[in-house]
Amino acid sequence: MAKKIIKFVVAVVFAVGLILVPCGINGVFTSDLPQYDVVKYLSDGFFVSAVVMLGAGGLTWASRMGTFDGLGYTFSVWMERFTNHKRDWHKKEDFQEYKERKAEKKKGNKFNYLLVMGGVLMLVAVALVLAYNFAF
Question: Is the pTM of this model over 0.70?
């Protein structure tokens, strides 16, 4: 459980860092910008962070669903071919066995906190864009 909390905290710190980078580059914290510019740069920061989190969450989800199992199997067979010449080829694992072994490892919690975090960040970014467009 502590491992999952640490992963979540690291993801939150990374997301906050991604929010602060565009804001820092545009001088939100150092100069006297008008309020509408601050909202604009905050929405940019939240959008960048949301896109990165959604992308990472999407890749994690795709990996858990077995999308990259074929590439992993191909790479492992290819590396085995060039590294282990003494192994008996009759004892090789075929693709179906490989997929079943990988599916056993992937059982468990399917909750993807990166997708949820990215969705929340995207909602905040959209709310800030709406505030920028309608309030100023």
Answer: yes
